[in-house]
């Protein structure tokens, strides 16, 4: 177990270095940057632009720029935003709570509803409710997140006035818990919709496979109650694929949060990433990328470890 953990941590570090190096190189090759903003001024001279590049270290070879940036990230100096000169770490940390609030709520909703639908479909395969859940899952997977979010705003905010059209709290209000929940419901449901479809399909397939195993038939033959057979034997041994799914879904969760936060003007990291793209604020973009990559890598590692603990058939060597 220890050797497996050390090996996976080493692989994660190598993967993080590769991801950040490729992203850093692509951003340096992309047009724009701090000198591009100043270059728009008709009074800006070539020597002034050269001085600006030197002050940001952009005149150095790209591998030296990456080494300095990586060293700064490890030491806690993530650089400064090109947009307002604020420390990148402070800019990102201000947005992390909003993103966690949205993604955790959406994932919790998806897990609870998706598992419930999946278990129902596995216990009653080929029934009307199973077919209805299958059709609903296909529709949810087919609807683009941005379109669904816009339709929710158009119908429930603009037409019916049931929900706010965006934001995390009412401007000028006291930001009370009921007010924040009122703003959270719509984006969390939109973000969790596709996740519900995925969780329900995986739960149904995994539980159906487990129910057909010999040890489940043996448990029934011993006269155990059906609820104990399903939840104590079948469902427990179906958790392996679901735990793996939880780790694999985090990238999709952040990708969906980027779109959802943009549609609902939710002040999270996804909205920050989109705004930073428009301002060509590369230090902030790299900071958001690193935070997201670390969370994704850690979630996959945690999912692998949980599979090993919950399923004795898995041996980590």
Name the features.
317 residues, mainly alpha, MetI-like fold, 0% strand
Describe this structure as you would to a colleague.
The protein starts with a helix and ends in a 7-residue tail after the last helix. The protein has 317 residues and is an all-alpha fold. The longest helix is centred in the first third of the chain and has 36 residues, at 88-123. The model has no long low-confidence stretch (mean pLDDT 81). The radius of gyration is 24 Å and the shape is globular. The protein is built from 13 helices and no strands. It has a domain at 97-280: Orthogonal Bundle (MetI-like fold). The chain has helices at residues 2-29, 34-39, 46-55, 62-75, 88-123, 128-142, 145-159, 177-211, 214-221, 226-234, 239-263, 269-279, 282-310.
SS content category: mainly alpha
Oligomer status: single chain
The number of strands is 0
Q: Which CATH architecture of the domain at 97-280?
A: Orthogonal Bundle
Strand percentage, roughly? under 5%
Fraction of residues in H or I helices: over 70%
Short description:
The protein is mainly alpha-helical and 317 residues long. 76% of the residues lie in helices and 0% in strands.
């Amino acid at each position: 177990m220890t050797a497996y953990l050390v090996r996976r941590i080493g692989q994660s570090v190598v993967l993080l270095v590769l991801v950040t190096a490729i992203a850093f190189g692509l951003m340096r090759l992309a047009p724009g940057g701090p000198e591009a903003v100043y270059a728009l001024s008709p009074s800006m001279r070539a020597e002034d632009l050269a001085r600006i590049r030197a002050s940001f270290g952009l005149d150095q070879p790209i591998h030296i720029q990456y080494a300095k940036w990586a060293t700064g990230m490890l030491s806690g100096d993530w650089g400064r935003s090109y947009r307002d000169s604020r420390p990148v770490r402070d800019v990102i940390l201000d947005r992390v709570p909003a993103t966690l609030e949205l993604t955790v709520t959406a994932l919790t909703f998806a897990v609870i509803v998706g598992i419930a639908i999946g278990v129902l479909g596995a216990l009653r395969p080929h029934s009307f409710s199973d077919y209805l859940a299958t059709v609903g899952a296909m529709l949810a997977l087919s609807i683009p997140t941005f379109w669904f979010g816009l339709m929710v705003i158009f119908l429930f905010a603009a037409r019916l006035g049931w929900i706010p059209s965006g934001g995390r709290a009412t401007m000028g209000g006291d930001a009370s818990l009921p007010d924040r929940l009122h703003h959270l419901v719509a984006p969390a449901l939109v973000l969790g919709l596709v996740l519900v479809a995925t969780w329900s399909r995986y739960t149904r397939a995994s539980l159906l496979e487990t129910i057909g195993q010999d040890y489940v038939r043996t448990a029934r033959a011993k006269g155990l109650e059906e609820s104990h057979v399903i939840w104590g034997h079948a469902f427990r041994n179906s958790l392996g694929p679901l735990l793996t799914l939880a780790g694999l879904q985090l990238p999709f969760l952040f990708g969906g949060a980027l779109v959802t936060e943009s549609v609902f003007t939710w002040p999270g990291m996804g909205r920050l990433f989109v705004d930073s793209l428009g301002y060509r604020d590369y230090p902030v973009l790299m900071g958001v990328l690193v935070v997201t990559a670390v969370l994704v890598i850690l979630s996959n590692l945690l999912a692998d470890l949980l599979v090993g603990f919950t399923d004795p058939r898995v041996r980590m060597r």
